[in-house]
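Troubleshooting log. The previous structure file for this entry was overwritten by mistake, so regenerating from the original sequence record. Sequence copied from the archived sheet and checked twice against the printout by T.R.
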Amino acid sequence: MSGSGPARRTRWARFVPAGYSGLLALLIAGPLLGPGYLLLRDAVSTPRSYLTDSALGLGDAAPRAVPQDALLAALAPLIDGGSIVKAILLVALWAAGFGAAVLSRELLRVSTGPQLVAVTVAMWNPYVAERLLQGHWSLLTGYAALPWTASAAYRIRCSSNPDPRKPPLETALSRSGKSASRRSAVSSWAALAGCFAAAGLTPTGALLAGCTAMVLVGRRNLLGTLALLLATSAPWLTATALSGAGSEPSDPAGIAAFAARAEPALGTFGSLAGLGGIWNADSVPGSRTTPLALIATALLLALLALGIRATAGIKTGTTNGRTARRSTPSTSTSLADESDTATTHPPASAAEMSGDSTISPRRADDVDSGTGDAGSNREAADASATPVGDDATNSTHPEAATIAARGIDRESLRVRRALLLLAALAVLLPALGATSWGMSGMEWLVGHVPGAGLLRDTQKYVALAMPAYVLCAAAGCRAVALRFAAKSAATKEAARPPWMALTAMVFIALLVPPLFDLAWGVGGALKPVHYPVGWQRVAEQIDGPGDVAVLPGGMFRKFPYSGKVAVLDPAPRMLPRDVLQTGELPVHGRTVAGEGTRAREVETALLQGDSARRLGELGVGWVLVERTTPGPLGESKTTLAQLDSVYADSQLALYRVPGATGHFAESQSAHRVIAYAAHILWAALLVGGLLLAAILRPRPTT
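Regenerated output below.
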């Protein structure tokens, strides 16, 4: 059968969602393919970065960019830093879409058309657009890891066979089946480790993936999952403990500043339900400030509503006068029945039960073709019974196939319902957090509980709704297509259209146009910039002890080459010494205080014209003046007159503080060893987990 037409078509069909995801990723981030560096609000990429204490999370501010900064610093001597960031962003966008296709195929057994709808929902939405405009490229890696995390957690749950009422599957399997099950379990745990590490490129991403996995893996696997999450989060957890930045509560003013925002005619809840509502109104595509926001949200929710019953496993009663029924391994499934049943699919093999979700080629082709006669469905059921993967016990142990099929049905249903509940909470809780009493509660939380500042940007956590959204969209597409196919069963077969493909195209056509300005770098906002050569020359001149202080005051800049919006100062990533930053964030006319104190003392000393000796006492060895950006300078001329000028051009000026020592850096030597070990552990879990998962994952055969 491996050489038959249906088998070949199925193998090629598996590449279609991957290719479609790649096309959408290029359409979204296409401008970044040109030369230059990403410099947009919070996104800062530089030609070269350095493994400073700040990159390890040991600086004065909270370790929000750990381990991403260390990763860039480690790879920068080998690969241009701007290319690394652009590559990670493109891969993240692609992985979000392809992961959605894989998740919908594993949990719903949908064919190619609904998978493409799932890809579109995962990639073409306001959340992706707004986080791109805000510069949160590393957060999007956590977003992209969510469907893969859900898939790995589902396979772990299946392989552990948590239901005590059912006999263990191993009793019905041969020795080869047990070996395949163990191999698949190891592959699933390795995949979860890789997903956690990829999502953990930023602390928020680690929390997103951790929440998803903990909800899905089942009680037996909670401790192992928690241990794995802590191990992959070691870089920022150890940095928080060593630096002490997480030992103090955050500024409660950040709650109101970062609360979810209502979009036109939608309100806060409607904006969040449509995957929008970021706190920064300037980081919103133009289309979301018009009635298109209402239209886009209404269309998205309507399409999701078509598949929510099937995703939740709720029967719809009757279809065309026939009572919906659950198919069994010995019963062929009609198109009408399939549209009404969430868990109707052919019996799974032992390899599938242990994690290898394989779709029968004849079944996929039958659904795609839109044929509804009993004969073709009977052929699909027969083809589905063919053993797949590394296990062939279906032919010798028919009861094993039945147990596996029922186990897959049961666990798939539980996982889908858990994802639906998670999505509801991911929308509801941020909406409540934007109310007056919700903000009061959050202000108390971040003001009294260290580390709770991670929760202040509540709209970030709407990403948790994405896995359920893609499942509902895929299930809705399949249900609509099968209903149309069932109604047209009386027509001539030659005139019968391919309903699944047509329905998928309609769904995609409804989702994409309302957010048209996501294309090509979110309307051209996402484009590379070019740094003046002075930055490289300044970096070469800094060869002595002491940290770097920067003027003007503040963390955000507006350079002539960076565009119209304020961007994070690139100095901390551009220079080989630690750059002191206060962590203060100006939001909506107010200032949210940072966590550290030394950087604030240094900035105050400069703006007040304090002595060079005072700077030296604070551990400052260098002062960089960025001449082409607005910002407070105060009485800094008095201080600069006492310093040694090292370099100056029209863009930058560098000064050396006489008599500076590196006693602050020397005191961090023991902490660096621990931080290095934590980052090595994270990198090993990232690379090793993904490689081991790819090597051990059972290969489907037909």
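The two ends are 7 Å apart (CA to CA). Archived copy saved in two places this time.
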